[in-house]
């Protein structure tokens, strides 16, 4: 039920972090995986690692904001493996985080680039994949949103706004193509400690963030990959148009949870 045997999956933004782990988990579950990413060396390494572990994968360089490149990514999957069953739209412009400053100081070019990669990229992926999925009898699209979509914080208005738009787009795709067998869902992760995040996050920062989570630890790429695997598989055949919060309960509690926990001696 949870396997992806005979399925073909594209993971856009599949070179590193969450997408890299998801590509590995999809392949281990039996999928033939096309890793698409702007990061050419890391993407090639990811596909090679999957093959070395006995899986089937190829790498295709892509800028998800470029319509022709995204068409090329999807075409490569169909030409090489014969069909397309799963698309994970996971790429995001995380390198622009430092330029995603409070709005009065926002650089318009940075805003546009965040939207181009985070939102237009997801739209282009859906647009390219849907005809192949419909022709093949259906498919599963999994978009990566974020817990930052649902509430504001001191920075990253561009990022959060783009991710809330991804949630909206997810519902539109689910609504427009559900009857043709295409499911579309979003995963909204809380803080996920990827290798890159682990390299820059000290113990004090980890502990400070963790105070606001209901779990004893922060997220890992495996947490998101497991959810993506479920959504990709036939086990989630009756699940569409949903946002799954893989967020350690971050969005489930009152804002003063950490302070009340301290007062109660449970912090
Ligand atoms: P990451 O930087 O490791 O992964 C992002 C991937 O997207 C990279 O491989 C990068 O090269 C690729 N990418 C960037 N721009 C691209 C472009 N224009 N075209 C193609 N590929 C491009 O970061 P991550 O933390 O693994 O993030 C993965 C997804 O999860 C993102 O959508 C991010 O917004 C989301 N997310 C992450 C967290 C977290 O705490 N790590 C939390 C919430 C949501």
3D shape: globular
Average predicted local confidence, pLDDT:
97
Give a list of the ligands. nicotinamide-adenine-dinucleotide
The strands making up the biggest β-sheet line up spatially as 3-2-1-4-5-6-7
Q: What's the tally of helices?
A: 9
What is the N-to-C succession of helices and strands? EHEHEHEHEHEHHHEH
Mind telling me the C-alpha Rg?
18 Å
Spatial separation of the terminal alpha carbons: 40 Å
| Unreliable parts | none
Question: How is this structure best described in words?
Answer:
By secondary structure, this protein is an alpha/beta fold. It is 46% helix and 15% strand. The chain contains nine helices and seven strands; from the N terminus they run βαβαβαβαβαβαααβα. It has a seven-stranded parallel β-sheet with strand order 3-2-1-4-5-6-7, sandwiched between helices. α5 links the parallel β5 and β6. The protein is globular, with a radius of gyration of 18 Å. The N and C termini lie far apart (40 Å). 46% of the residues are buried. The mean pLDDT is 97. Nicotinamide-adenine-dinucleotide binds next to α1 and α6.
Which short descriptors sum up this protein?
15% strand; 7-stranded parallel β-sheet; 46% helix; alpha/beta; 267 residues
Outline of the structure:
By secondary structure, the chain is an alpha/beta fold. It has a seven-stranded parallel β-sheet with strand order 3-2-1-4-5-6-7, with helices on both faces. The chain has helices at residues 17-28, 40-52, 67-81, 108-135, 157-177, 195-200, 203-210, 221-232, 257-263; strands at residues 8-12, 32-37, 56-61, 86-89, 139-144, 182-189, 243-246.
